[in-house]
Amino acid sequence: MYSDISFPNKKILEIRFLSVEDFYTISFENNTYTIVGGDEDIETNLVGITGDEKVYYISADDKTLYYISVNISTFIKELLLFDDYVNQNNLPENPDDLQLAEFTDKFLSQLLELDKTVCKSEFWSEIFEEMEYGII
To answer: Please, are residues 49 and 72 in contact by the beta-carbon 8 Å criterion?
Structure first.
């Protein structure tokens, strides 16, 4: 089903993808999701794709669903962009609020080039917040 997509073979933002043959489906909140990966440390936090190709972060323990992206190929591009961005754009050792905001804004502008709906993503909103606070 998703054999034409090249999934990252490393953890990015704590997300690790399954191999295509290990994908499975679950029913959650009256919808069916193909599970393609999840949080490496919390096995009940999953990345799932709906029938209309939208990608969600599913927290089974909290019974919550967070929109991520318009489709899995876009999400993978977003993750790879994030990985490249944080590895190539070093912040000073103790960045101030302005430096953190600029760092985050620059990444957001690059992300918007991939996906105009990224500001609707609860997943990415949390990542932006963590970047602005210097957590990531």
So the answer is: yes
From the number of C-beta atoms within 10 Å of its C-beta (0-12, 13-18, 19+), residue 78 rates as buried
Within 39-117, where are the H helices? 72-88, 97-114
Residues 77 and 128 in one domain: yes
Read off the pTM: 0.90
Q: Are residues 81 and 36 in the same domain?
A: no
Q: How many independent structural domains does the chain possess?
A: 2
In the chain, how long is the greatest CA-to-CA distance? 46
Among 47, 71, 95, the domain boundary falls at: 71
Tens of pLDDT, residue by residue over 13-64, are 999 999 999 999 999 988 999 999 999 899 999 999 999 999 999 998 989 9
55 and 81 in a single domain? The answer is: no
3-class SS of residue 90: coil
Q: Could you tell me which of 59, 61, 96, 55 has the C-alpha nearest to residue 76?
A: 55
